[in-house]
Amino acid sequence: MAQTSPALTAGNLGIDGLPDDMGKLPHSGVIALAGSSGTAFENWRRHLVQDLCRDFPTMLVAPDALLLDRLFATQPDNHTAPRPDAWVLPSTAQSQLQEAGFAALHKDLKRAGLRPQQALCLLDASPLFTGASLERIHRLAGQLHQWASQRKAPVILCFEAPGDEVHGMLTSFAHAFPYYALLEQDGNGLALRLERWNSAQGAVFAIRLGLQAPDWADTAQRLHANGVVMQGSSAQLIYAPDELDVYATQAAVADQRQPPAPWHVVATRELIPEAVQHALGATVLLDAGSSIEFEALARMVHQLRRTHPQTLKIVVRETVGKLRLNSEQALLRLGANDVIYRELGFSRLLQRLRDLQSQRFSRQVPESYEQALDAFLPIPERGYQQPAYFCTLTLNMLRKTQPMGLSHSLIQLRLLSHASHIQAIEAYRPSRDGDLITADHDSIYVFLFACGESDIDTALPRLFLQPLAQLFSSQTSDSSHEGMLLMLGRLQSAAEAGLPDYTAVAMPGTTARRPINAQMHNSVQPSATLPRIAPATDAAASASVMGHSPIPRRPSPPHSA
């Protein structure tokens, strides 16, 4: 397919505006058209019949009279258009023809009055093939194709509500069904998928043409191509009429005196939905804003993704602050194509946007915004926790976020001989929910939510008022799920044997609610007891052991832990 704008022409496939003459019906060979039962398929079939009757004398074959009555009732009152011949071939009779073969079908068609110059349209041919053996399908379809290839008018087989069996048959038997088009509805909206077809440029395969749905209440309105063209099993975007358009919030381009001329700069994020309500393949560039704006940002990303085709690109750019790792992952889960770090210059940003132009969003987006976001959120607790409760809270967060692939870190800080537990706990100043601390006989344990191994040395020193080397002799950390479970198992065993509770000396306002009748975030209740975990094995030795004075390593690019 060409990268330039397709020439739009009306055709006689019952759908207007299809590019490169793809709306033209072949005049010979079997043409298979399939789609799920519903208003869209009814519209397509109705206007297909109109176009067919306009261009050819036509015979319609239906499984029942009700379908013919419904079809004729919605045909325009046009006295110049010839009325098609109609024949009812019940589903049971179609099934019986599987064994009788094409000769019996051909004989019945001639008896019904089919003439050599007439087009033939089976309004629902599913019963003719459903349930048949591969051998019978191969024989019947092959004979039907050979007969249709000798005719000078189209032979159309419609398959309403095709199941996997019918779709597999139409896909596999390409020699018998050389033309196959499927009307489908998915995250990209309504579209006509041409599995095999002809165009002005030659044969095309696996082409997906976006459609604009009409007002279903008006039976005269037809399906119309919206200009979006995708190709391949992964539905790569080939063309969209607005694929070069970029809609950016003012804050997202605040570092530029003059944004690129073709860009549409929108004053605030709240005005974006209205600005892009008709966008198909454009790019939306949103500013991340501050942490207090995250929920509004996440909700907007989800709204845009749920109300637009998957060809719309949504990009979030960090501006005034750094997104936490879990916040970034949540945005990608809710529908964003990419998150651009604030360290990335504008020229690199432009390149990233260019790289996205031919992509589509292929991940499944949950219908519920609240449920999707909750999986990435920590518990609303921070700071010191009594040891057993620390294990319970931490395990709950690990369990909830493991399916999302979030990385966390559990750190054991062994105290210097002259440093006390109280001194270390009083020096701890958490700033984020989900970051917890507790103590055993000779160490402090810190859990950092959504903080990977590479970010520990940047995040950890910020949590203590004193340098780590003045409080601790060594640092053992693990960010693997299995390793953290092993560490929690050892701590839980120590807690069951008896450990001090330093709740009274923890900084006011940072402690969690007491374990009794504790309410977990989003009604997730803590486990009564932590499951027993096997004692540490050699696998636990993979945890990194730092020296007396950990040297912070700034990751590249730096990430907000």
Automatic annotation (TrEMBL):
> What Pfam families does the record tag this protein with?
CBP_BcsE
Q: Where is the composition biased (Pro residues)?
A: 552-561
The protein's name in its UniProt record: BcsE family c-di-GMP-binding protein
Q: Which InterPro entries match?
A: BcsE
Could you tell me which residues belong to the region Disordered?
Answer: 539-561
